[in-house]
């Protein structure tokens, strides 16, 4: 009975040992322990003779631009602050940020009570001046008739004429005061100067409205520009009308657009210049979006090969090099892409020949 138990225990131990050995061998195999390895650099992994599968290209040196990107904000070309022309308390604001308004829509109203009182007094003064002018004109006409009949003296006639002129002048003066007050009354109503959207509401009812201090700001939703602060060291490379690359991440779009304006002043704190780029009409593009200006600021000599010549094996980048009729796989490190070319930072030398896209043929 005990011998049978011992045989069963031995079988279990052998089974467990066999499974463990298989797992260990599988682990070593997955790590490549049974396959010869080639270290990074220029040593060959596979040598072949004859014509390579695919076309070839020579590793070339070329002067390329160092591409940089600067952030900016999409803004409307037309932005206006809606501000009072007189000092008065704000009694009503009809819009909020984001509202769409039409030209002539009422934005806000100011307290007009003082001006209404002034208008009433000015109208009364105008009425009195008109009454005096009517009487003075009648006296002028009557005395003029008597003077023609030699029934009134020249001195009397001249005095009446002067009084009539003075009365008419007072009418004109009183009328001017009334017109001025009416204009100021019209200024108590703030109107939208164009079709657009409200960007910000800067005041609240009850606040004091002051000349030149905006109650709200408005903008036109079309005619957009990307405004970017570019370091002064790079800004000199830009010019009006120059086409630059713009990237709008929110819309996942990259496109070319011309520079519309360059502010000549350099910011003393940031040492940068403001560059404004005219954006095309793109569906979904709105003021406030974040964007990038991409442009080369400096240059350097780069080794370039076609992008298709590079194969990615996990985290490794390799190319197939052709030398003396033999091909070898070479580990490389790449940099930036320039169209269909890619920069080789290390692993190749100028003049070497690489095979383009041979991987499907193998």
Q: What does the model show?
A:
The chain is α+β, with helices and mostly antiparallel strands. The chain folds into three domains: 55-64 and 300-361, conserved putative lor/sdh protein from methanococcus maripaludis s2 fold; 69-78 and 220-298, Efflux pump adaptor protein, beta barrel domain (Elongation Factor Tu (Ef-tu), domain 3, Beta Barrel), CATH 2.40.30; 80-216, OB fold (Dihydrolipoamide Acetyltransferase, E2P) (Beta Barrel). It is 28% helix and 37% strand. It is built from four helices and 20 strands. The strands form three sheets. A six-stranded antiparallel beta barrel has the order 2-11-14-13-12-15. A hairpin with a 2-residue loop joins strand 18 (326-338) and strand 19. The longest helix is centred in the middle third of the chain and has 36 residues, at 113-148. The radius of gyration is 44 Å and the shape is elongated. The two termini are 63 Å apart. 19% of the residues are buried. The model is unreliable at 29-51 (pLDDT under 50).
How is this structure best summarized?
Helices cover 28% and strands 37% of the residues.
Helix content: 25-40%
How many beta strands in the DSSP annotation?
20
CATH architecture of the largest domain: Beta Barrel
Helix count, DSSP H or I runs of 4 or more residues: 4
CATH-defined topology of the largest domain: OB fold (Dihydrolipoamide Acetyltransferase, E2P)
Low-confidence stretches: 29-51
Q: What is the arithmetic mean of pLDDT?
A: 85
């Amino acid at each position: 009975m005990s011998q049978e138990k011992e045989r069963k225990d031995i079988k279990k131990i052998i089974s467990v040992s066999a499974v463990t050995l298989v797992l260990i061998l599988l682990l070593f195999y997955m790590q490549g322990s049974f396959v010869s390895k080639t270290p990074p650099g220029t040593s060959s992994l596979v040598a072949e003779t004859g014509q390579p599968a695919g076309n070839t290209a020579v590793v070339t040196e070329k002067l390329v631009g160092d591409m940089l990107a600067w952030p900016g904000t999409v803004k409307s070309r037309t932005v206006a602050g809606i501000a009072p022309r007189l000092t008065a308390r704000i009694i009503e604001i009809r819009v909020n940020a984001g509202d769409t308004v039409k030209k002539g829509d009422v934005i806000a109203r100011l307290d007009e009570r003082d001006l209404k009182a002034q208008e009433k007094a000015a109208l009364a003064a105008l009425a009195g001046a008109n009454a005096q002018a009517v009487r003075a004109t009648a006296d002028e006409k009557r005395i003029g008739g008597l003077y023609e009949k030699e029934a009134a003296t020249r001195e009397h006639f001249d005095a009446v004429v002067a009084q009539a002129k003075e009365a008419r002048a007072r009418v004109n003066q009183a009328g001017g005061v009334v017109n001025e007050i009416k204009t100021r009354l019209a200024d108590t109503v703030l109107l939208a100067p164009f079709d657009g959207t409200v960007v910000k509401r800067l005041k609240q009812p009850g606040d004091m409205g002051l000349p030149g201090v905006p109650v709200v700001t408005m903008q036109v939703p079309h005619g957009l520009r990307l405004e970017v602060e570019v370091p002064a060291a790079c800004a000199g490379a830009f010019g009006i009308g120059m086409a630059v690359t713009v990237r709008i991440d929110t819309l996942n779009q990259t496109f070319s657009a011309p520079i519309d304006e360059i502010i000549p002043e350099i910011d003393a704190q940031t040492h940068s210049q403001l560059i404004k780029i005219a954006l095309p009409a793109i569906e979904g593009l709105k003021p406030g979006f974040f964007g990038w200006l991409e442009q080369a600021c400096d240059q350097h000599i780069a080794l370039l090969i076609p992008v298709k010549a590079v194969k990615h094996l996990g985290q490794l980048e390799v190319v197939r090099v052709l030398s003396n009729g033999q091909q070898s796989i070479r580990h490389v490190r790449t940099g930036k892409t320039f169209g269909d070319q890619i920069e080789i930072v290390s692993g190749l030398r100028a003049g070497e020949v690489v095979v383009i896209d041979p991987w499907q043929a193998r």
